Amino acid sequence: MKLKFLAILILGISIANNILATEKPVQSYQKVIDGFVSSFLNNDHKLLKGLLSDDAVYSFNRDVRVVKHGATAVVNEMRKNGNVAMQNCDVKSKIVTATDALVMAQIDINFSAVDNKQKNYLVLERTKDGEWKITNVYKFYVSSNDDIKEKKNIAV
């Protein structure tokens, strides 16, 4: 009788565990990249905040120096700007390289009204929960006058 009771108890716990277990769906890195583009185009600070890791860093050029901001500062600045959508810009994205744990994507934003282009390189990492989060954003402001030439390394 005790054996029968124990077997029913184990079976009941097993069934309850399977019924109550909810597995969080794993978000694809492409959804995170598309979300980044959408947050930029729509100035959606709430969407961006959900895509960034807590320790994400934005690095961008200002003349000859590099400026870095944390995720909170970027989201707060976006919040201050309100819900102003970007207009007159063309956005293209592509995956530079991807592994099961790390992805680098390039997002080019070209504004048609002004001579201003942005090249954004996103670094995404998979968290221990299986979610993809943006950990680094490298933003380059370039104009058509900026002639990016390939530099050659010379070994001595």
Summarize the structure.
This protein is an alpha+beta fold.
Describe this entry's structure for a reader.
The chain is an alpha+beta fold. The protein has a single domain (29-142), classed as Nuclear Transport Factor 2, Chain: A (Roll). Helices cover 32% and strands 38% of the residues. It has four helices and six strands; from the N terminus they run αααββαββββ. The protein has helices at 2-20, 29-42, 45-51, 71-80, and strands at 52-62, 65-70, 89-98, 102-111, 116-126, 132-142. A six-stranded mixed β-sheet has the order 2-1-6-5-4-3. Helix 2 (29-42) packs antiparallel against helix 3 and helix 3 (45-51) packs antiparallel against helix 4. The model has no long low-confidence stretch (mean pLDDT 81).
